[in-house]
């Protein structure tokens, strides 16, 4: 589009809570009809339906560019999905046509055949490295729904590692839009080690349109795991500072220091800051995950006051609790509970447990934090008045990437897994006692010390 062309009009649609199309402007209705959909049926354009489901699950507006197929061409679209009481409202703009992707030339086809011939399963991505295909026989998701990975970043499926030379072949290939092979990776769902290879694909205009590749199982888990850990450390360093800057700038825009902004722009700033904080928390979780799953992982053995740490953790969450209209009842000043563990890790565990309790508590309720001695154990009890956890879900919440209700706002599904692994590494544990409608009661224990040992 040049400066003289008018902007493409925005087409709008409303989906109900089950993803069915309620109404749509003509242009969007026509696109949906060409994709095989109709009013009263699920939205038939996969990229738009996926974005709508994501916005509904996160309960926050999402705006991003997507590429949708339309007959013998593709459409570059800018989509905003906004949850509402009725379901999800879509606003679709830009509407820029581009040539559709065509199969690779013969030489590229031979390279692709070579890549796939040695693969145990296959995968494909778009230009943004979001998964568009995973072979149905892929043992990648512990029997889960592979369809849930479509539209997600490739790194949700694989944790990339470093090769013997300390480089990541895929990253170099991405910069050059070239083929690659020998990329070490770990399948996140089950820890299996693979080598990735792929060739690029291009659209009719010769622009990079993604990778078509395969994954081959290897029998060198120790070396690959170390490589993945090194890559995680580099990823942490590369992402933390930019994400912190994004969050700070977005919050500054949202504060409107230079005068009032349009509501939509202020809303975008809030969206950006929220997404940035979510990504920063995910980086923290992934770094912790790499650390605790190393065979040589150890924690310090320090003399600590568990009651004092419970008060500190509750204090760190006081502002968040106030915004949610939730009261935290913490151990009284002067109350002590000697124990053994690592100060930093214990605080991390308690912030996770109390933070979860605040998140899932209804307005006007109380979260109780108690410190007690139980025989040879020092214990902190965190109890809330939330909706509770069914018995069949109580073991699952301590597994990796597991949440009871993914549609609710929350983290990555790693917090409780990491917290329990840390507690057990310090000679303690975390357990839960709950029932639907009766809140949840988490018990965090550590080896106790006598009062004279403080």
Gist of the model:
The protein is α+β, with helices and mostly antiparallel strands. The chain has helices at 26-34, 46-58, 106-117, 169-176, 221-255, 263-292, 306-316, 318-323, 343-359, 415-425; strands at residues 11-16, 21-24, 62-70, 73-83, 87-99, 121-125, 131-134, 158-160, 180-187, 193-202, 208-217, 302-305, 327-329, 338-341, 366-374, 377-383, 429-434, 440-447.
Terminal Cα span: 71 Å
Q: How many DSSP H or I helices?
A: 10
CATH superfamily name of the largest domain? Histidine kinase-like ATPase, C-terminal domain
Strand arrangement in the largest pleated sheet: 7-6-11-10-9-8
State the low-pLDDT regions, or none.
Answer: 1-7, 103-110, 138-144, 220-224
Just name the CATH architecture of the largest domain.
Answer: 2-Layer Sandwich
Structure summary, number of beta strands = 18
CATH class of the largest domain: Alpha Beta
Query: Which quaternary structure do these chains form?
Result: single chain
Count up the domains: 4
Q: Kindly provide the radius of gyration, computed on alpha-carbon positions and rounded to a whole number of angstroms.
A: 25 Å
Helical amount: 25-40%
Give an account of the 3D structure.
By secondary structure, this protein is an alpha+beta fold. The protein contains 10 helices and 18 strands. The strands form 4 sheets. Strands 7-6-11-10-9-8 form a 6-stranded antiparallel β-sheet. A hairpin with a 2-residue loop joins strand 15 and strand 16. It is globular, with a radius of gyration of 25 Å. It starts with 10 loop residues before the first strand and ends in a 7-residue tail after the last strand. 32% of the residues are buried.
